[in-house]
Design brief:
By secondary structure, the protein is α+β, with helices and mostly antiparallel strands. The chain has three helices and 13 strands. Helices cover 19% and strands 36% of the residues. A hairpin with a 2-residue loop joins strand 2 and strand 3.
Length: 193
């Protein structure tokens, strides 16, 4: 297993470490108020892939594909808000990516094998916050690893944005202090997990 840990709570603008060494960085450019592109670069600053927010596309090794082509919502009786099926191209595995108990899980559809887990940044007042991290199972192909990394970053960012909008709508007045991003409940916030 490989555990990649984000140095910053802003996962779209952070160095990422494996075994203590920086292995890649995520940087995001903005135009006006919207995100334009999040690029994943290796230690030589060579781009590996990117999330093209405005175009609703992912770029991996120079190829760009729209999310409407590589992502589908699963058909089920229960509408899981944060569950999607992703596949880079027909020759690659299909992955079910969903948010469960405080983490994202990416499972290969044909085998049921878990290929990646992402734990979001969790802020705490009384003890150290938990850094965001992505754990890949041993044997995951590098191109699948980069694809899943982009997918997980995109889905976690969309979840955070949705939570911010929800808090803004339900805020009784502008003087109310919003709870920190990624906080799931008060026990997590105070470190009583």
């Amino acid at each position: 297993m490989s555990v990649y840990t984000f140095d910053d709570k802003d996962i779209l603008n952070s160095s990422v470490r494996l075994s203590g060494s920086i292995v890649f960085t995520a940087t995001t450019t903005k135009s006006d108020i919207d995100r334009d592109r999040t690029t994943i670069s290796d230690t030589n600053e060579s781009p590996i892939g990117s999330i093209r927010w405005k175009e609703r596309a992912l770029e991996l090794q120079g190829e760009v594909r729209g999310t409407d082509i590589i992502k589908v919502k699963p058909h089920s009786l229960i509408d899981w808000r944060w569950e999607r099926i992703w596949q880079w191209d027909p020759s690659r595995p299909r992955y079910v990516v969903k948010f469960g108990v405080n983490q994202w899980i990416a499972t290969e559809l044909s085998t049921g094998a878990v290929h990646a887990l992402m734990t979001p940044y969790i802020p705490r007042l009384l003890k150290d916050s938990t850094d965001a991290s992505i754990t890949f199972s041993a044997g995951v192909d590098d191109s699948d690893k980069w694809f899943l990394l982009l997918v997980l970053l995109r889905m976690e960012t969309r979840r955070i944005d949705s939570n911010r909008r929800l808090r803004a709508k339900t805020r009784p007045n502008s003087n109310t202090i919003a709870m920190a991003d990624g906080m799931q409940n008060a026990t997590t916030f105070f470190g009583f997990q």
